[in-house]
Design goal:
Helix content: over 70%
Strand content: under 5%
Number of strands: 0
Oligomer: single chain
Distance between the termini: 21 Å
Radius of gyration: 22 Å
Largest sheet: none
């Protein structure tokens, strides 16, 4: 670290109330809900609208790249904003409304449109969704540094985020595939099913966003922004941040490779239940069954980060997930004996969520490091720089799935639920669920060897920021 003399001062911590940490974590859950719904984009467009999986895959990748490109613009705008309603809250609310409009339009696409019109229509509204998603997600990453800088509190945010993520994601999976789908004639490929599902998602997203705005309200003011003084920022500052902030570089590599793999795995998991286990309803039942055990396990594991630091727990979660994925690959799924595979998958998902849920607060550490290094509080730019690269890499997840389907000749085929689609299809599902995440975790383990922001180093960083405040 550059400023070893800063360690002579004690760190000065801005602590949040527990309810503020809990409420603001719901902002990430709201955008995760949106991402969960758009994760069914490939399934919806192929099996409901009759579009090509390969073409849709490339379109989705293009939209994800566009999403990444908009990140630096929004991040810069956030860092330039400091008005009556704060720095973050306006972008949270506006982003949420724009997302809802885009998602409702996509999943209510008229089936009577021509194929060409369906491509154009869904792509245009995907662009709208991306703009809203960028605005709101940038705030989750950026506002972390203002919410709290206490290294013992940041994992608490991660704990709430992990718990709520499990409850809402697994809960919505149960509602979708066990409660709603059986009520429709064509189950999860019925157009009416997706119309109801998209409305349900949007209502939940809106409520969560309002609660998150309440949670960040007190902290969304200048005195909690880094050194407590607004610094002039320029768009050209992005290059030195990326070039000089080594912890951010390593976190981007670790998180982006995991994200690419895990996003592809999530897209394939629906087919695991529908076409390998041959039981659509099992996915919802499984999600509801593991909800409480997964919450307990996540709380226990992430709580260790308060004592051991975020970096160490990130590594523990990654290694555990890697070993469990190898075991899943070896055992394989069986419709007759699913229990062993499902138990391993439960443990693996919990382990993977430990590391993934720590990423947002580790970005806050990188933001503090940038303030320590340069004196500038640029949470929007640091957070969206992370998102920009992360999204560019993970944008290929839909393309990967579409290409895999194309390679085995199923790219333009309706993948009927509860039908055995053959050994080749089963192989690409297992590669997506296990093989890609294994490669992603290996990349993460290598990158984290060069990530230096452990608990001891963060004390030096916070002391350095305090010294800057004192000097003015």
């Amino acid at each position: 670290m550059e400023k070893t003399q800063a360690a002579q001062l004690e760190p000065e911590y801005n602590r949040a109330k527990t309810w503020q940490l809990a409420c603001f974590s719901l902002n990430n859950i709201a955008t995760n809900m949106a991402m969960m719904l758009i994760g069914f984009y490939a399934m919806f467009t192929q099996n409901v609208l009759g579009l090509s999986a390969v073409v849709v895959g490339f379109l989705a990748t293009a939209m994800r790249i566009f999403d990444g490109i908009t990140d630096p613009i929004v991040g810069f705008m956030i860092d330039k904003t400091n008005g009556k309603f704060g720095k973050f809250r306006p972008y949270m609310m506006i982003g949420n409304v724009i997302q809802m409009v885009g998602l409702l339009a996509i999943f209510n696409c008229p089936t009577g449109f021509s194929v060409a019109t369906k491509y154009i229509y869904t792509t245009i509204w995907y662009v709208v969704y991306v703009l809203g998603y960028t605005c709101q997600t940038a705030c989750t990453k950026g506002a972390q540094a203002a919410l709290t800088n206490d290294p013992k509190q940041r994992p608490v945010f991660s704990m709430f985020n992990a718990v709520f993520n499990v409850v809402f994601m697994q809960g919505m999976t149960y509602v979708l595939f066990t409660v709603l789908a059986p009520r429709f004639e064509k189950k999860n490929i019925d157009p009416a099913f997706w119309s109801v599902a998209s409305l349900l998602f949007c209502v939940v997203m809106l409520v969560l966003t309002i609660l998150a705005i309440i949670g960040i309200k007190e902290k969304d003011q200048e005195k909690y922004f880094g050194t407590g003084k607004i610094q002039k920022v320029h768009f050209r500052d992005y290059l030195p941040i990326l070039k000089e902030n080594r912890p951010l570089q390593m976190l981007i590599i670790a998180a982006a490779t995991d994200k690419l793999a895990l996003t592809t795995a999530n897209a394939a998991r629906t087919y695991l239940f529908a076409n390998l286990f041959l039981n659509v309803a099992l996915q919802g039942k499984y999600s509801s069954a593991i909800m409480i055990p997964q919450v307990i396990l996540l709380v226990v594991l992430i709580s260790f980060a308060r004592k051991n630091g975020q970096k160490k727990m990130f590594m523990v979660g990654t290694w555990a997930s890697l070993l469990l994925l190898i075991a899943m690959y070896i055992i394989g799924p069986s419709p007759e004996q699913p229990i062993v595979f499902l138990v391993l998958m439960f443990l693996q998902m919990a382990a993977a969520q430990v590391s993934s849920n720590l990423v947002n607060t580790m970005i806050a550490d990188c933001t503090d490091y940038e303030t320590y290094r340069t004196g500038k509080f640029v949470p929007g730019m640091v957070g969206t720089l992370f998102s920009f690269v992360d999204k560019l890499v993970s944008s290929f997840s839909t393309t990967v799935w579409g290409v895999l389907l194309g390679l085995i000749g199923l790219g333009n085929t309706v993948l009927t639920p509860e039908t055995d689609l053959g050994a080749a299809f089963n192989a690409i599902v297992m590669f997506s669920i296990c093989g890609l995440p294994i490669l992603g975790h290996i990349a993460s383990i290598i990158a984290m060897r060069f990530y230096k922001l452990d608990s001891k180093t963060m004390e030096t960083v916070q002391a350095g920021i305090r010294e800057r405040k004192i000097k003015g």
